[in-house]
Amino acid sequence: MRWVIKFLVVALCLCLAVPALAADQGESVWSKYNMKLYGRVKMDYIYQSGRSSASTVATNIVDRRTTSDWDNDNTNFKARDTRFGFIASHEAGEWVGKGRFEIDFFGNAAGNSSEARFRLGYVDLANKDWGTSFRAGKDWQAISQLHPSTIDFGILVRAGNLWERPEQFTIRQRVGDNLEVLVTAFKFYTGGATNPNTGDESRYPWVGTRLAYSFEAFDGKHLLAFDAAYQSDKDNTTKEDIDRWLVSGEFKFGLGPVLLKGEVWYGEAIAGHFSRSDGIATISDADDTDEIEAWGGWVDATYKIMPKWSITAGVGIDDPDEDDWEINGVRQGMGDSEFSQNLQTYVNTWYSITPAIKIGAEWMYVDTERNDTSDDEYSNSYHQLLGSVFYNF
Q1: Helix/strand/coil (H/E/C) assignment for every residue in 72-125
Q2: pTM for the complete prediction?
Q3: pLDDT digit string (tens) for 264-310?
């Protein structure tokens, strides 16, 4: 935390000092490039009627058969979703360059302190004549780009929304006025603290593509997109090849005061990737490894009641194929981070008090189903109530 405070103090001093030094040392970087500091302060007040596997966000509920206090309710006051970012950009002929850096405070927490966490950091280079851009660094994944409008920080993690901010290299190409084609290579952080590649067999990056078609109709703006991605892998124990793959579709429709959006996906061996369930991606016996299939998705609708007030309702689902949890016909048990289905429904509202300050409230219901080793299905659920105060700058 101390280094974050020092960084902000130094940045403020530089902002004040650079213009004064510019008269003696030439053009200021603040006038040479387009510079923008931005951020937000967000305070959440959370009540959960049962034990989520992560108390600060809504995920699946813990396994009631292995955790005796699974139905303990709890409250959590959280300001960790506060963010600070910096963008620099410039133009040189037909080229436009941009650099971006952003942190939040969802790093390791100890006592009453939370460490800053690296969220975004990338270089973007675009050519206006070609309609082409190149992005290198840490950014939101380029496929399955849309996100639900939850107030909860988790944005339906483990309930149908695929998301992460991996290191990547992505090329985007505009084709005409309506179509964008991209190809991307990205790698999730899957290993230890010092070397992310020696503790597992994920030695190769994901590769993916996205076709996005935007258009206007019925006085609204709309989007349709198709995504596909693949990663070659090996099982740590059997050394069998693993084919991880994913296909998804996205949509967004502006229907007057209503914005309707969502995605649906299907894939194999993607558990633990795309901020999906930490459950098993494959299951193995001594000689063979089988990928676990899954499908999921989400949809929500936001209605702008008036310029300062909006309301959103939505649902998300993650549904692995529980029949894949078998070895030689014997079903394996599911733990806290594994489930045969996880469903979240939610309703929230935001009200803007000033252009920079708004308040919000959200109700979310989480229902988690599991299969035990005898193939009996059982489920348990909880409610989450959330209030939020938000300042954007």
Answers
A1: CCEEEEECCCCEEEEEEEEEECCEEEEEEEEEECCCCEECCEECCEEEEEEEEE
A2: 0.88
A3: 999 999 988 999 876 778 777 666 778 889 999 999 999 999 999 99
